[in-house]
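Same chain as my last thread, 255 residues:
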Amino acid sequence: METPASIHQGLKGKVVTSVKRHIRQLDAEIKLLESQLETIIKTHEQELLSNLLSIPWLGRKTAILLIVCTNSFKTFENSRQFSAFFGLSPVIRASGSSVRGKTRISKRGNPMVRNHLFMCSFTAYSKNHQCKALYERIVNKGESKKLALIAVTNKLLAQSLAIAKSGVRYDPDFKSVSPSNNFWFLISVQFNNIFVWSEIVFSKILVYSILFLNLTSQFCSKLIKTGSKKAATKSNGFYPQTQFDLCMDFILFAR
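reply #2:
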């Protein structure tokens, strides 16, 4: 005769077996969907995917997630927008002079992409040259390693956005030129600003000139109409308007 303990043990084994079978089925469905998603990405965004995979230790799943969740990077203009979209931008927790909380990341946006990127940072900080330099600089300042890893995650995001926008593969020897240290860059920016400002001023002058000419033509046509009336009534004792009256008429008409 079976005891309650043996019955309980048998039911427990059946439940565990059933749950494991469901887990295997779900894993198979997940792998099938992932393969179909990768096939779609390769069909439409093969070049972008290959460029993203050129970043050291940015995984295939992470690259596919970035392409899918960002509409192939078409909805972002700079890395700050990109970082804020995935909840990696810092948020200051303060209120007046009494509340001074720690600065943390916002954790808004897609948590799956954020978690995948954070896992990539565990290897990227030692294998990716730019990420390694950033990690060591933050740690040498006395900051925590977790903060340095979050900075590495942001660096991976910035690299992926730059590669997607430029259409070139990852270059480990690439160095960005700071605009503040480039004299000719500053000169070109100033000339460009002056050119834009002159275009705006010229367009305003052109608009005002057209408006003035339209008002002048309308006023002249009004003078022609009223002049004929004044000439017809002159024999009855009425005299034409003086120059002052004509100016006042023009001002009132322009309003």
